[in-house]
Design brief:
Helices cover about 15% and strands about 20% of the residues. The chain has about 110 residues and is α+β, with helices and mostly antiparallel strands. The relative contact order is 0.29. The structure holds FE2/S2 (inorganic) cluster. FE2/S2 (inorganic) cluster binds next to loops.
């Protein structure tokens, strides 16, 4: 089974099992990783924003235009940001490392 490592803002690393076909967001939720995902993957928020380790970024399928548009609204956008709900796990991504952004926009 492929694995993903989530890195919390404080540097704590969690290596978890990442079944193929699930999104990074779904995998985070299964493992109680704090990634919000307010719209549950319908590309209507940017709270599933993650920062992909630079060595992995180029190996990912390119972001669709809709994802790019939504990412533009993400707080703390970086060069290697993606939306967790749009990244689907495959065997090729075994070992993926993603960080949780240190701040999320917190309304209310
Ligand atoms: S969960 Fe809303 S865009 Fe990913």
């Amino acid at each position: 089974m492929p694995k993903i490592t989530f890195v919390e803002p404080n540097g704590t690393r969690h290596e978890v099992e990442a079944p193929e076909g699930l999104s990074v967001l779904e995998i985070a939720h299964r493992n109680k990783i704090e990634l919000e995902g307010a719209c549950e993957g319908s590309l209507a928020c940017s709270t599933c924003h993650i920062v992909v380790a630079p060595e992995w970024y180029d190996r990912l399928p390119a972001a669709a235009e809709d994802e790019e548009d939504m990412l533009d609204l993400a707080f703390g956008l970086t060069q290697t940001s993606r939306l967790g709900c749009q990244l689907i796990m495959t065997q090729a991504l075994d070992g993926l490392v993603v960080s949780l952004p240190s701040a999320t926009r917190n309304i209310g």
